[in-house]
Amino acid sequence: MGLRIAMEMKMDIAALQAFLVRDFPQAAGDFEFVAVAPPFVTMALIASDKHLRPGGTVSGPSMFGLADVCAYFCILAALGPVALAVTTNCSIDFMRKPLAGRLLCRMELLKLGRALAVCEGRIFSDAAPDKIVARASLTYSIPPNS
Amino acid sequence: MGLRIAMEMKMDIAALQAFLVRDFPQAAGDFEFVAVAPPFVTMALIASDKHLRPGGTVSGPSMFGLADVCAYFCILAALGPVALAVTTNCSIDFMRKPLAGRLLCRMELLKLGRALAVCEGRIFSDAAPDKIVARASLTYSIPPNS
Amino acid sequence: MGLRIAMEMKMDIAALQAFLVRDFPQAAGDFEFVAVAPPFVTMALIASDKHLRPGGTVSGPSMFGLADVCAYFCILAALGPVALAVTTNCSIDFMRKPLAGRLLCRMELLKLGRALAVCEGRIFSDAAPDKIVARASLTYSIPPNS
Amino acid sequence: MGLRIAMEMKMDIAALQAFLVRDFPQAAGDFEFVAVAPPFVTMALIASDKHLRPGGTVSGPSMFGLADVCAYFCILAALGPVALAVTTNCSIDFMRKPLAGRLLCRMELLKLGRALAVCEGRIFSDAAPDKIVARASLTYSIPPNS
Questions:
Q1: What is the pLDDT of residue C3?
Q2: Crossing angle of helices D60-79/C60-79, nearest 10°?
Q3: Is the pTM of this model over 0.90?
Q4: Where do the TM regions start and end (chains A, B, C, D) (predicted)?
Q5: Torsion, CA B131, CA B136, CA B137, CA B143, rounded to 10
Q6: Nearest neighbour of C61 by CB, restricted to D25, D64, D88
Q7: Which residue has the higher pLDDT, A140 or A28?
Q8: Which of A4, B42, C50, C130 could form a disulfide with B106 if both were Cys (CB 3.0 to 4.6 A apart)?
Q9: Nearest neighbour of A26 by CB, restricted to B49, B60, B89
Q10: ipTM more than 0.90?
Q11: Which pLDDT score, from 0 to 100, does residue C47 have?
Q12: Radius of gyration of chain B (CA)
């Protein structure tokens, strides 16, 4: 899409990790940061039994959760440590069953407006990055005075 | 939307409950059937710590999971006990924070085609059914020879 | 979904019609108001050659346009004659081919917040109101100081 | 997303142009092919008065139409000249007002399955390719025996 202009990074992985523990206390152990380079953030799902469906495939809600968390930190990485942004919309397409092993989500911040932020990303297995498992777009509402 | 034509009910609550345990073994205890009357199915989320965010509000992935399960059983109630249908798309809007207490999802089957089924539903707190917490539309792919 | 609380109507059909001509000058002749009773607005598409695909079926963009206009006036009917709201998201599912004749959209305002409004509606042929042709959900951004 | 595996091109621009005229007779003059290299197809909207809103900005339905046509030809370029595929779902986010001048859509085919194809793309002004105007994801149903 032509030149991609790098955004300033307002929070690094260590700072984001502290927010992951603070804002998602029950789920913090399920995720890890792989790469943070605004407008992109890549995170991994550390899948355990609770994330799986019969046959060993990662469940839809687990993939939704991965996309949602990854979008949240995509916004924080560019915006800085602000009051809580909240998801207002998500559209997700499930396309293939993930392979066994680590599941990654690479999310891109497409718009960081005054009131809304829009992200778009893809979920794929670490072992087959060119086979997209799911795609998702998410809108977050940014609280005033952030 | 004019006359709503009742669909035949192919599975009752007891039959659907057996499939809930079979197809969602890790999550079966999180949900209960409230009403089954095709094209409508209403289910409740039995929220526990794992479903909550800081402040005690139900998380987005938990609401996604409720909508997804409810759509699945909306299809099975009308189609009968078939080979696994899989979610291909979900669009969900989060509009208000849920109140404390039971969270319900009332899902409607809008189309049951040869290859695709489309559902649309709303999530609301038992204590305030006119304040919609979230809305979701989901598409399921129906395997051939179902 | 339980009791539906009627919203106050801030603009009637005559007032909305004046805004249709003002805000959609090229398309005003394509639409007519059928019923306005907040949170519901029903509009019809007056289909002409430009709206049709081979075979005489109404095109996807024409149905998108009908849903978009209907949501816009759903918001204005409840909010009053304000500065321009703009569409930020639409998710639309096309389920059946419309029949010949008038195509209607019945839209419901689900949330009218400070910054965002969310609508959900269904498109159907006048001749078969129980066969849903398409469903759509739309988010509008409401400008500050509206 | 790692290596992008090139798809075989089943139809070139001349062949696609013939289908544009056949399948979209009323709208064929509104669009032109810019680049065809499966899984990518880029098309331009030749905006005229009918595509504009007050202020000279391209309307939402016109951008929806551009995304929809571009996805259709993204599928045909990879699949070949088959029986008509039909749009079943579209999720579109409008993020910025387009600049004056040519509006482009670059669409990518993410999945070409037996029954469904999924595309994702971005709309941007020719003069500012790094400022995304809109993003869209679309699902098409592929008829059996294609």
A1: 42
A2: 150
A3: yes
A4: 63-87
A5: -130
A6: D64
A7: A140
A8: B42
A9: B49
A10: yes
A11: 84
A12: 15
Q: Within an 8 Å CB–CB cutoff, is residue D91 touching chain B?
A: yes
pLDDT score, position D125:
95
Which residue positions in chain B have pLDDT lower than 70?
1-6, 83, 145-146
- Element (DSSP H or E) covering residue B117: strand B116-125
**Chain D: nearest CA to B1, how far in angstroms?**
21
Collect all residues with Cβ–Cβ distance below 8 Å to A146 and sequence separation of at least 6.
A79, A82, A83, A85
Provide the number of CB pairs (under 8 Å) joining chain B to chain C: 61
The radius of gyration of chain D's CA atoms, rounded to the nearest angstrom, is 15
Q: How many C-beta atoms lie closer than 10 Å to residue B99's C-beta?
A: 16
Any D CB within 8 A of C60 CB: yes
Give me the pLDDT at residue D53, please: 80
* The amino acid at D12: D
pLDDT tens-place string over residues C41-84: 999 999 888 888 877 789 999 999 999 999 999 999 999 987 67
How far apart CA D100 and CA D126 sit, in angstroms, is: 9
Q: Give the closest of A49, A68, A93 to B60, CB-based.
A: A68
Q: Residue A47 — φ and ψ, nearest 5°?
A: -70, 135
Q: Cβ of A118 under 8 Å from any chain D Cβ?
A: yes
Q: Using a CB–CB cutoff of 8 Å, tell me whether C91 touches chain A.
A: yes
Q: Which residues contact D142 (CB under 8 A, 6 or more apart)?
A: D75, D79, D82, D85, D113, D114, D115, D116, D117
Residue B57 token pair: 């509000």
Chain D: closest CA distance from residue C3 (Å): 30
What are chain D's domains? Answer: 13-141 (3.10.129.10)
Q: Is B27 on the interface with C (CB under 8 A)?
A: no
